[in-house]
């Protein structure tokens, strides 16, 4: 299992890859990293890393 974090400001998206599938979840109040951040109900699954990264970029830009 691999993880990638995409962040901007106080928003972050964690993308997790497991067995060729990608899952992403939005975190807010991530000023000091995601350890103290709050997970939201906004999440999605993807077939490719490119799709997950596009979704993450849209979520952190909002």
Give me some keywords for this one.
1 helix, alpha+beta, 62 residues
What features would you describe in this structure?
By secondary structure, the chain is α+β, with helices and mostly antiparallel strands. Helices cover 21% and strands 52% of the residues. The protein has one helix spanning 49-61; strands spanning 2-8, 11-18, 21-28, 38-46. A hairpin with a 2-residue loop joins β2 (11-18) and β3 (21-28). The radius of gyration is 11 Å and the shape is globular.
Give a brief description.
By secondary structure, this protein is α+β, with helices and mostly antiparallel strands. Helix content is 21%, strand content 52%.
> How many H/I helices?
1
Question: Over the alpha carbons, how many angstroms does the gyration radius reach?
Answer: 11 Å
Quaternary assembly: single chain
The 3D shape can be described as: globular
**Total strand segments:** 4
Strand content of the residues, in percent?
over 45%
How many strands, what sense, and barrel or not for the largest sheet? 4 strands, antiparallel
* Uncertain stretches: none
What is the arithmetic mean of pLDDT? 94
């Amino acid at each position: 299992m691999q993880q990638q974090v995409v962040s901007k400001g106080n928003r972050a998206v964690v993308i997790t890859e497991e067995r060729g599938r990608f899952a992403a979840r939005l975190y807010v109040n991530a000023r000091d990293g995601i350890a103290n951040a709050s997970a939201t109900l906004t999440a999605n699954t993807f077939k490719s890393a490119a799709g997950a990264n596009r979704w993450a970029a849209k979520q952190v830009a909002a």
